[in-house]
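Hello Y.,

Per our agreement to keep a running log of every chain we model this quarter, I'm adding this entry. I've kept the format consistent with earlier entries: sequence first, then predicted structure.
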Amino acid sequence: MLAYTKEYYNTYVGTFRDPRRRILSAFNYHRHAYGLGQRFQEELKEKHTLKDFVTFPGISSCQVKQLTGRQCATPVTISILDLWRAVRRVKKFFAFIGVTEYYTTSVCLFHRMFGGKISAVEFENLRPTGDVIERVEAEGYTTLPKDAWKGLSVNYEKYDWLLYVVVLDMFYNNVKLYGLEIPAKLEEERRKVGKYCDEWIGFVDKTMMVTAQLPEYQPTQQCLSYLEENG
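Predicted structure for the entry above:
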């Protein structure tokens, strides 16, 4: 478990992910639910849609939980206060932020920021999806196509989504700051997210400069109205 005291400011390294993509990955990988307990696995095996899976007690808010001292699928109720604490910890304690869907750019950004020679092994895929899917289906699990996450409302993962858009903004800004070429998909995603979430992102940046407390007003609703197909 990470320590979050001031001597650890700006020391940690982390890679984050769009929570809808993370849910699909967990769904297709034996309904992955670390921290929930093996006794629930057979019940999870019978969940055949992302909505049914993500609404199962303990499944949502994995990234916020891990930033607030819990395991990914610990069955606890997450609140806006937990989100605020998670975002604050990312802002203050993480020296580097990567994004899974932009893995190559994340690796290049890390080396641009901290130096060191890039090695080919850093780009190897150690767990190809095709091999995993074949094995999981042989064990009797249903799986979903790789774009199935697009149909899942961000409201089912609202706290991880509100965390993710802040992380995405930090990552995008660092890619620009350190002079790397911005992938077209990253440029497009940041543009689409910004239409809905720039108020929330700006609120976080402004408010955390002056207070560690959670303000009464949080402009989250517009960000949570994000729709993938609206682009």
